[in-house]
Amino acid sequence: MKAAYYEANGSARDVLKVGEIATPQAGPGEVRVKLATSGVNPSDVKGRQGSRKIAWPQLIPHSDGAGVIDQVGDGVAKSRIGERVWVWNGQWKRPFGTAAEYIVLPAIQAVKLPDQVGFDVGACLGIPAMTAYHAVALAEIGKGSIVLVTGGAGAVGQYVIQFAKALGATVIATVSSPDKAAMAREVGADHTVDYKTEDVPARVMAITGNKPVDAIIDMDIASNAKYVASVLKAKGNVIIYGTSNPQATIPAGFGIPNATRYQFFIVYELDAGERQRAVTAITAALEHDTLKHRIAKQTFPLNDIVAAHEAVEKVSVGNVIVTM
Length: 324
What we know:
The chain has helices at 12-15, 42-51, 119-122, 125-139, 155-166, 178-186, 200-208, 221-224, 228-231, 252-258, 272-287, 305-313; strands spanning 2-5, 17-20, 30-40, 64-72, 84-87, 102-106, 110-112, 146-149, 170-175, 191-194, 213-218, 232-240, 261-264, 300-301, 320-323.
């Protein structure tokens, strides 16, 4: 099969290659998916750059993708052959991800994709949509809640906005430009704040009439912890799924008397119950067509894997998709 791979950490142009490797075979409890699409996420790019040192002689990147099951192993119903699916954790603690024509993985990691949903959307779900759903669940928000979502125009942020709105929350999203403000509003944000040109805490308090927000869902705690003491209510939740720096300074003087809860998580390590709840919610949203998806304007064939990674490095608007 054709696959993109690397054998050492480094820049995309230096280490990413495309070539023929052995086609995998499904083992007991596994399915093989003939992939149509592969999603490129920031974590895939960072892993290739070296945030996770390569632990195998050869690594096929990417955790997200979608396609059709074409082979099943012992213990998996043969009726699954021909099923359209999206996959999660393709390349996580294993060497072979979705940047290839085929992937073999445990059957539970291939989730049925509704017939009306395209494979491009299927490649956006494993990390962006699942991260967003779990973040909103941890935030403990509901009808009447006010939530501040940082990075509201990002791949995860746009899904966070939609899942929070579905619960009846009022959403304030931070963005970095008027165009991104429009994107956040398009998926349901009630208010946007341009963190590059506005005083975020002052603007949030003006929007709420000086009422602190119930929760913050944050994609970069190292940059955004400075907002917490000015905008969050006592016993409020700060849900964190990313950081631009391994060290962050949090306002402990505010957090201790106000019982601030900081909840960190990484979507790769959800437990079985958390994962199933997210899969169930995403499936229901897809079946009822209640989610909006933003695919990057340009998709890339597998041979252009370097350009796809560089697009993510340049913070492309929308999910970057590689097609097989």
